[in-house]
Amino acid sequence: MAPIFGDPPSDGTWITPIDRGGITVPDVPIVGFIEGDGVGPDIWRAAKPVFDAAVETASRGRRRIAWWEIAAGEKAFAAGGNYLPEETFEDIKKARVVIKGPLTTPVGGGFRSLNVTLRQKLDLYCCIRPVKHVPGAPAPVTRPQDVDMVIFRENTEDVYAGVEWKSGSPEAAMLIDFLRERMGVSIDSLSGVGVKPISPAATKRLVRRAIQFALEQGRRRVTLIHKGNIMKFTEGAFRDWGYEVARDEFAEHVIFEGDLAADSSGEIPPGKILMNDRIADAMFQQALLRPREYEVLAMPNLNGDYLSDALAAQVGGLGMAPGANIGDSCAIFEATHGSAPRYAGLDKVNPGSLILSGALMLEHMGWKHEAQLITAALSRAIQAKTVTYDLARLLPGAREVSCSAFGRAIVEQMKALQTDAR
Ligand code: NAD
User: Is 21 left (phi over 0), alpha (psi -120 to 50) or beta?
Assistant: First the structure.
């Protein structure tokens, strides 16, 4: 069937897979995009010229992205009566790399959430959220620059698996009876009940990716975050299986915290990665008190949801936090905020989250200079105090500009960076 929004561009070439989840990216790759709902089209209009300018500038015209629109959300519903048509999943798999704006959860549309459906059906098991202060961005702590962490959040299991039943439903009553009669567990008969599955396979593939990332990026610490002191067989097992991956597959690269303490220097030996774990509540304190001691954090779904927002807020970037959902066959890079329907079409909100997600996408494609150019130019625009309303109200002396003008300001800063470099 022909794609709802048209065939893939004929002037581009497909991204192809290589071993171990890697990809080969041609000079003019076809990259999928989903505008998204609400403010999605506003931020996409501001972000796309930034991506195009970064690629053209950094590659001196050698590279270009052939954008391919993929159907999802309200635009797909208007075109074909379905928020997530079957071919959307096929198209995303074909493109392998996709960037998306936020999608509104349809009320009564039969979806728990379009985003969760995409992640689950495409098995995008690894949610990556880098958290780093953008110089110049207003932040609530005194030293936001001390935070430079990358969160690896498991994306398919935990209480997000959607295995739950409503209080008073026949299913909840059946499960409560079973637990009472067969397992000897006492639960109030009117409880709502949910199941929290955490498996060795899903845990290990996530932690494996986190350790591989640390090795590739020259990061020195990987921390497993869990609540295993209370939920021993789910969160505690996550910690145990995480350590098992480190021991079984990366023995020559890692050193464990216990072994480090026995060593008199306390320093991480050269060429090694320190593997440790923290209980989730303690990690919230540590993030505020000793942020420099943490680099790559791997955790189950719910912990990851909480901690990524808390850390993003710490660096002042809740409206600018980038995110990626990655599986073995494809990856979706996305603005982490929602569709903010109140602001839809006003050309007002901050496109920073989508723009930084695009930088993350270019890095994933191996286009590192392009990615760096975007983050540097964005930071310069903020330092010049040319910002959207959300940042303007926190930055004394700022000049408030529209969403699209902020995008243009970033492109201008790119040109200035090039001139400075000459
Ligand atoms: P939201 O993030 O859309 O908006 C909450 C508030 O945050 C907004 O009113 C606005 O004040 C602020 N905000 C959001 N994005 C901003 C930006 N780019 N710049 C400046 N300020 C910004 O959260 P919500 O209102 O809870 O959700 C609206 C819809 O989005 C819901 O249908 C929800 O399910 C969906 N949603 C989608 C995603 C996603 O696609 N990844 C994520 C979260 C929520």
Answer: left
